[in-house]
């Protein structure tokens, strides 16, 4: 899968050509020219730690320990190079010859993790303002003035309603924290060499570092967050929504389930 410089024009005939990627599709692909790596970051799948590691790898010795990099630093766009910043020939050369990898997670666990992180914590006021107020306005009957203004107490059921509303994606692409991996990383156009799993994060991450030739000097940060979203937690949140909504959410994330070999969760009432 190469990259073309503009949106593909439609040709005569009835054969619908596969959409060609354009540079703007490549914003999530972080490049390390030093070790010839491309990492597609997926929020809520160890993305902060991978960005830290990529900063160590591409920083020419500026950092040695990923954990000395504050998490907010890891998310400053100018600290990492992304593939869309290169010329078309440079992009295609890198897609051909670099080691390309991404990390995935059970889609509903990732979704619940995003919900918990962005809508249930006090400090995420930018998300409350940007998305919460809109969700409350659209999907909550008799919302209080305070809720309409702060957007700080979005229920999972309201978030689900927002996601499956056809108007949501017509208005804008989903936020990267709940956008599908399929849409963020284009796994059908880009042939990834490795797909790591959140379930085996440490092992898979260290395998990538070994292949990159830095396995001896660099280890993936090990840490078990006590607040981490589990399958049981996802089940609890999904129990609060109707089987219709469950089915609609499954449809929304279906490609992520199928492509990365995750089975339909047993807690769904489909």
UniProtKB/TrEMBL annotation:
Signal peptide limits: none
Keyword terms, alphabetized: Carbohydrate metabolism, Glycoprotein, Golgi apparatus, Membrane, Signal-anchor, Transferase, Transmembrane, Transmembrane helix
One Pfam family linked to the record: Sulfotransfer_2
InterPro entries, sorted: Carb_sulfotrans_8-10, Sulfotransferase
Enzyme Commission code: 2.8.2.-
Bilayer topology annotation: Single-pass type II membrane protein
Protein name per the record: Carbohydrate sulfotransferase
Highest taxon of the lineage: Eukaryota
Entry coiled-coil feature ranges: none
GO cellular component, one term: Golgi membrane
Subcellular compartments: Golgi apparatus membrane
Molecular-function annotations in GO: sulfotransferase activity
Family statement: Belongs to the sulfotransferase 2 family.
């Amino acid at each position: 899968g190469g990259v073309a410089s503009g949106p593909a024009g439609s040709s005569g005939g009835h054969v619908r050509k596969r959409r060609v990627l354009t540079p703007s599709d490549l914003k999530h692909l972080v490049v390390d020219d030093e070790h010839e790596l491309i990492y597609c970051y997926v929020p809520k799948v160890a993305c902060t730690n991978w960005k830290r590691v990529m900063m160590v790898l591409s920083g020419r010795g500026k950092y040695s320990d990923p954990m000395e990099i504050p998490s907010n630093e890891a998310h400053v766009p100018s600290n990492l190079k992304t593939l869309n910043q290169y010329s078309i020939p440079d992009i295609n050369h890198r897609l051909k010859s670099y080691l390309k990898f991404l990390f995935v997670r059970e889609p509903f666990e990732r979704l619940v993790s995003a919900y918990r992180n962005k809508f249930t914590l006090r400090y995420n006021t930018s998300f409350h303002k940007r998305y919460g107020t809109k969700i409350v306005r659209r999907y909550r009957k008799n919302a209080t003035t305070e809720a309409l203004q702060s957007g700080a107490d979005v229920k999972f059921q309201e978030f689900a309603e927002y996601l499956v509303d056809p108007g949501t994606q017509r208005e804008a692409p989903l936020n990267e924290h709940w956008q599908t991996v399929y849409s963020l990383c284009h796994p059908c156009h880009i042939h990834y060499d490795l797909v790591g799993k959140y379930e085996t994060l440490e092992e898979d991450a260290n395998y990538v570092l070994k292949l990159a030739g830095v396995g001896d000097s660099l280890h993936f940060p090990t840490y078990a967050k006590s607040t981490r979203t589990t399958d049981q937690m996802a089940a609890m949140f999904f129990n609060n929504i109707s089987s219709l909504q469950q089915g609609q959410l499954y449809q929304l994330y279906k490609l992520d389930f199928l492509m990365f070999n995750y089975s339909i969760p047993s807690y769904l009432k489909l």
